[in-house]
Design a protein that fits this description.
Helix 4 runs parallel beside helix 9, helix 7 packs parallel to helix 8 and helix 11 packs across helix 14. The protein is built from 14 helices and no strands. With 284 residues, the chain is mainly α.
Length: 284
Amino acid sequence: MSEGVERNTRAIEGTVVTDFADRMTYGGYLDLGTLLSAQRPLSDPEHHDELLFIVQHQTTELWLKLVLHELAAACRLLREDQLAPALKCIARVKHIQKTLTEQWSVLATLTPAEYGQFRGVLGHASGFQSAQYRAVEFTLGNKNAAMLRVFESEPASLELVRAALEAPSLYDEFLRMLARSGYPIPAEVIERDVTQAWTYRPELVPVFVAIYADPQTHWAAYETCEELVDLEDDFQLWRFRHLKTVERIIGHKTGTGGSSGASFLQRALELTFFPELYAVRTEL
């Protein structure tokens, strides 16, 4: 063996801990034994690409767990009029959204023929049944009480989605904070039934026109408005990449959960979280 090859190693530094008989390990802290044993393909014989499909969706659920964690903190901080740390939480969500959107490119390497060889083992399992995704949508304002029945067989999931349905959305909390800060938010907006989906309220547009017309005077509100627009923009990009990935892999087949598939996802692009923040642009 040449001298160059012999030296192609990196010596372990003397200070590196190697005895873990009674110490916390990396795998122990992250519970990797549980995490890495949770990928259980059902195809028989096991199809090579089913692991990709499982890992894609499991990692999405992990990121959604963090998104919910950050959005819950942002809502709480807005209730406490702590805007700066709330915006930090929203900024983190935006970075997670970019990761989730880029992740579709990995799943898009799955061809129609490859997916077709194990799609049958999914039965009626579908991302439509993701309780965490639904809780994120509800927390952002796209609420629909009819969705609760999807989770009736899973009490923990039902509790998660119901809690998101019954809580004020991120936008509700922002508008309430604006009202406490002296902005003329109508009382009927503040007192609205928060279990209902947010719908466009033209009476809010003049409030945002005033904010956008003089950002220096209203910088905190102005910055938050733009952060929320970023949030919606990123969410719509995620929805679009989802749609295009589905079209690429299954075309316009019916979804495993019974939806119309791509057509159903296309209609989701028409949903909006903060319509007044887009409407204000027409008025400026």
